[in-house]
Amino acid sequence: MVKVNENFLKLPGGYLFPEISRRVKAFLETNPPMPLIRLGIGDVTQPLAPAVIEAMHKATDEMSRKETFRGYSDDSSGYDFLKEAISRYDYKARGVDISPDEINISDGAKSDCGNIGDIFSVDNVVAVCDPVYPVYVDTNAMAGRAGEVMPDGRWSNLVYLPCTEENGFFPDLPERVPDLIYICSPNNPTGAAATKEQLKVWVDYANKHGSVILYDSAYEAFITDENIPHSIFEIPGAETCAIEFRSFSKTAGFTGTRCAYTVIPKALERGGVSLLSLWQRRQNTKFNGVAYVVQRAAEAVYSEEGRRQVKETIDYYLNNAKIIREGFAKAGLTAYGGVNAPYIWVKTPGGMPSWDFFDLLLKKACVVTTPGAGFGPSGEGFIRVTAFGDVDATREAVERITSLL
Ligand SMILES: *Cc1c(COP(=O)(O)O)cnc(C)c1O
Fold it and tell me: Does residue 247's CB lie within 6 angstroms of at least one atom of ligand 1?
């Protein structure tokens, strides 16, 4: 009889978001006095930019004519027009020498962050931040790299890097040397963004030990501080120790359209093997590329109008973040993030457990947030609030919470 991958059976079963849904549903059954405002979701709400829509229409028309129809592309890593635009605007414009052939287009940073594990041995030791984007943990657990779940909810083989108020939500170097190190900056869930100096410490460490940094910069477009790097490749030495994941999801509202990319420098080798060649071998075998129409849509993000329109939407979300940050500060709450990220990481008042504060805001303000404890033990004592909502709803949510406290 077939045997299932028993690593899947070890997974605690998607506790966070199902539990939030359960509590919200139960609360809605009590006929709440005010309409619910959802500041818990990590999804965008504003439509695609007009320049993007126009490019999609045009590409769709091309697909309708025999002369311009496209089937499989020769190369699953994406069309040159998109890779060239990325190389030029996301890298060379910032003085970073990343060429189109180091860029690999995909359907999502989530899939890439998980699939990248295919090119690494199951014996590698993996380090994750705590709190963490759960995809890094669960995909390694599925691959058999995480060990067993311990009574405190942590995995026995993972190295946890606490990100706390004390270290400014950026991890210190661990005692046990990991092989693979996931760093997400600007961070989901804390909203913290790493400086060049902070990243340099990890780049030097990874080069010294032969580790590889898996750098997720899905929220790069939200960086407003000029001193914060947009790419890990702005750090000297990163080209020999880092892989970068980027996505059009949060940058340009592609969460339902699906387009992202992974950058692996040609100079990155381990054991004499190019990691770029392994990744391309993997992708060419298991993936047939992103839809032509979608790649044309992504290309339009880099046109003059595209860049302006996309920035307007980012500014809209950043304005929500400001409303949340300032409103909460006025209410006497300690709030982090929201300057270079669409997330605000709010300390619960009086050391209240995060699920209790979640319940209080749900029941008394009819506002849905995300309890920090759901992202890992170091998230206890915090809630995550997102800036992806509607501005009026965001303002109202902040008013309700302010008058409550
Ligand atoms: C939203 C998000 C992504 C983007 O994933 P896609 O699959 O590209 O939509 C990646 N990493 C983090 C941490 C995210 O929050």
Answer: yes
